[in-house]
Each structure stands twice: as structure tokens, then as C-alpha cells.
Design brief:
Blueprint: H1 2-35, H2 37-53, E1 61-66, E2 76-80, H3 88-94, E3 100-105, H4 115-121, E4 125-127, H5 132-149, E5 152-155, H6 173-181, E6 186-193, H7 195-198, E7 211-216, H8 227-241
Parallel strand pairs: 1-7, 2-5, 2-6, 3-4, 3-5
Antiparallel strand pairs: 6-7
Helix pairs in contact: 1-2, 1-4, 2-3, 5-6
Amino acid sequence: MRKFLGYILSPFALFAFFLVLVVFQPLQWISYKFFGYSAHKKVVDILNLFLFSTFYILGNRVIFNNNQNLPIGRPIIFIANHQSLCDIPPLIYYLRKYHAKFISKVELTKGIPSISFNLKYGGGANIDRNDARQSITEIVKLANRMKENKWSAVIFPEGTRSKNGKVKPFQAAGVATILKKCPEALLVPVAIDNSWRMIKYGYFPMMTFLRMTWDVLEPIEPKGRPAEELVKEAEERIKEKLGQV
């Protein structure tokens, strides 16, 4: 039944999603060009609120739980499992006061209304996976911006999305690079559950009436520990939250 309803509701959700992207493209341009970073960021925050609100057209629910007393004015590395592109809009919106930036593929900086513009000018890192030197340079630049501006970053250490919700082994390279330049950053695991089911069959039909959750877990203080050890601890906490231990 959920899949059948997906055939009916998916066109409306997709139309709404892309309409939001098209409408916010000029709004981003105006805010960035004439009013600077702060105005642009507010527009991006609202953009992502509208984007994940389109999930509700499918009867899906977005539940973001953050009961942690996270510091403002200190860089944070949010470490999350990655299930689908649906993961990102709630993370941007609900973590907005931490100025969370993403590490993205450079290919995404072209051709996608709103998303490409934000990736170019929003302050994240756009990496070429075929060029290790360029990737490291971009992540180092992000780490410097985090240190200077007290921004945060969201990292998906699995590298690729999990198509069945099962957490893949975490890689520590990105976190290690950031911690070298920004050793005061706090590590915060985020467990994402059920978003993979929304695009279980691709973007048509999308699944309906799902309960998708984002849980911010207890922070991890680096205290000079190796990045591999820290990332492994974050991975284990996320798996435990998802019942995958």
C-alpha cells in the first residue's frame, strides 16, 4: 500500500521539491551579493526547512532529537551515518545555529538550482574525489574557517550512502584532517534512521508514511586522542542507537 500511494503522491512531492529549489535560487543570489554571508545563511536555512517539508506530502515524518547541551561558539564536527540525500536538509536546518558546513563532491557545484549556489558560496568544502591533493586542501580550508569563525562541519565517514540502512565502516581521514587544524573541535555523533526507505525504489515511487529520525548523541571530547579512535567510538555509538551492534 505504501508503494502504491508513492505512485500517487511522489509527483506532487517532487514538483514541490524542485519548485522550492527554483524559487530560492534568485533569493540566494540576491542575499549573498547584496547582504553577505549572514543574510545568505538565513535564506539557506529557510530553503532547507521548505525542502524537508515536502517530505510531508508523502505522509512522512521528520523527527529531529537534540537533547544535548552543545556549546555555541566552539567548532563542532558532527559525525553521521548516511542513508540518502534526504539526510541533509534536516541537518542544515536543525543545526543552523552551529553553522554546520558540508564536504561535498565538486560535481554538485554545477547545474542544480539553489544547491549548487549554496555549495559554491556557503563555506563548505567541495572536493574532487579523483584528486587527493585538492581534497585535502579543501578540507584544510574548511578547518581553518571553522577555527576562525567557530563554525561546524557535518561529515559522513562512510563515504557513500547505505542503501539498506546498515552502517558501513567509518573512515577517519576527513576528521583527522580537520582536527589537525582545529584540535579544539568537539565531536558529536548523529544517528539517522529510516531515511533510506524513502528512496528505497529510487525517486519514483518514493515511499510514504515513514517515521524518519535524526538523533544527536552524547558529545565526544577529543582530548588529544587519535582520530581513528574517536571516529570508531562515534561509529559504535551510532550503531548502538540504531540497534546494529
